[in-house]
Protein 1
Amino acid sequence: MTHTTVSCGSSADRRRPGRLFAGLALALVVLVLAGCASSSGADGSGTPGSHTRPDEQLRQTISQGLMAEGRQEEARIVALGGSRLTRVEAPFLRTWAIYRVDYRQSPHPVQLHVATGGGRVELLTGVPGAFGRVTAADGTAVGDASAAVALARAYVETTRPGGVLTYVVGRVEDIEFRPGITGAAAERRDEILAEYRPRIKEPAAEASGKGFTATVYVVKDKALQRHDIGVTAKGAVDDRVKTLVPDLPVPYTL
C-alpha cells in the first residue's frame, strides 16, 4: 500500500499564524490606547488638546458677554465642560435667541437662562427687566394671542430667580406636592386640589387695548401664583402677580 504524506511545513512555519494573530492583537491594543489618549479631555474641560464642542464659538460669545457685564460666575458656568447649552423655543424673537444653561456636575445643580443677539448678551435669570431689553433690541412684534402666550410663558420661565423652585402649571394636578404626606398636610393638599381644579388653566391670552393680557399660573417656592401679564405689540411686559396659596405642601428644595 502506498502512503501519501502531506507536509504541513516546518514547525516554524506552523507557528506563523499564531505569531500573526498576536501581532494583530498588539496593534489593536496600541490603536485603542492611542484613541483613548487623543480623546482625553473630550468633556470640554478646557485642557490643552481637549475636544472642541460644536457650540464652542457660541459658548465663548455668551461667556465673554457675561464677563463684560460683570457676571463672572455665570460666565464661568457657560464655559464649563460639563455644562449643557439648549436653545429655548421663542417664536416671537426675530434676531435674538434664548438659551438654557444646565450644569449638574456639582452638589448644587445650576440652571440659568441667557439671551444673545446683535453682538450683545443679556442674563435673564433673576433679572425680569432684561427680558424687555431683549425684545426691544430684537424688534419683536406680537400680532396675535398665541404669540402673546409664548412670550408671557417664556418671560416667566426664563427670568425666574436661580435656586428657587419655579414652574408653570396648566392644571392643579401639575403642582408637585410632597409625596407621602399625611394628616393636616394631606388635608390641605386635598382642599387646594378641590378649590383650584376648575380655576387653573393652561396659559392663555386675550386682546386688551392695543396689546394682549396673558394669564399664567405659576408655582414659586411654596406659593401658587396667578400672573396677569400685559404684552404690548412690541413685546414689552407688565407682570401683575397675585398669590393665591402661600403655603403649598411642596418640596422645599429643587
Protein 2
Amino acid sequence: MRVGHTYTRHFDLETRQHELLGVDLGEGPPRRLLVTGFVIYVVWVGVLFLVFGWPSRVFFVLYFVPPALITYYGAQRSKRIDRRWNLTHWALTVRYLMVGHRPVINGGRRAAGRAEWLPLRARLGERAGRLAELPGMGGVEGLLGGDEPKSAAGRAVTLDIRPRLYGPDVVYRARRRGRTKQ
C-alpha cells in the first residue's frame, strides 16, 4: 500500500499582528484573521444599522456576538479539506445551493443553458424529501424542481461517415508540403 505525504501544510506561514494601536498583543493573532473579522464585523453591523438603526440594550448582543462567532469558527481549519478555512467551505456550500452546478461544456467553449443546470432537488439529494416533509414547508416543493435536469437537446444527429485509407505515399507528400510552407 502506498502512502502519500503532503508537505504544503508545513509551509503554511502566516503573518501575525504583534501590536495594534499601541497595544502589545504578545504572540499576536494572524493578520488574515483580523482582516476577515473586521470585514465580517463591518458588513454585519452595517446591515443591521441600515435595517434596525442604533442597537438597544436588548439587541446590543445581536450586533456584536454573531460576527465574533463567525470569525472564530470560520477561521478554523475545515475537517473535510485541511487546507481550507471553515468560512471558505461555508461560502462554497451556500454558493452551490444558490447557484448550483453549471456543467463545463467542451472545455468552456459554450456556456451551459439554464435547462442544463443541476436543479435544487438533485443538489440536495435525499435531504430534499426531508425538507419538504417539515411542518410549514409545503410551499418549498415547487422551488425544489425535478430530479434531473430538463433535456434541452434536439433530435439525434446522424453521422454519415466514410472512412478513407491513406497510404504512406500520401502521408509523405502531405508532410513534404507542410515543411515547404514553413
